[in-house]
Amino acid sequence: MRSLFLAVIIGVAMSGTAFAETIRTTVHGMVCAFCATGIEKTLRKQSEVAAVKVDLHNKLVTITTKPGQTLTDAKIKEVVTYSGYSIGKIVREK
User: Fold this and answer.
1) Structural domain count, the chain
2) Residue 19, pLDDT score
3) Which of 52, 54, 76, 84 could lock 36 by a disulfide, CB 3.0 to 4.6 Å apart?
4) Domain range for residue 54?
5) Considering the entire predicted model, what is its pTM?
């Protein structure tokens, strides 16, 4: 009985846990390491962002948000456009 009670408490606690979000997008015009570094630094400045990974070869940017936070498509487009690039499709994963 005690272990069942403990399992229920753990299950309830975990159901309220906030998850981080992974966001992937292509960036058009990103052609060199300098470009990649600029985009990475600009995205890292956003308070919702936990990590940024740039794959220059595939022109892919992967953003991981902090748990329980998100970055809107509009904000991503704004940041990338401000950096001087255009953005492709945005794909989200939990």
Assistant:
1) 1
2) 86
3) 54
4) 18-93
5) 0.78
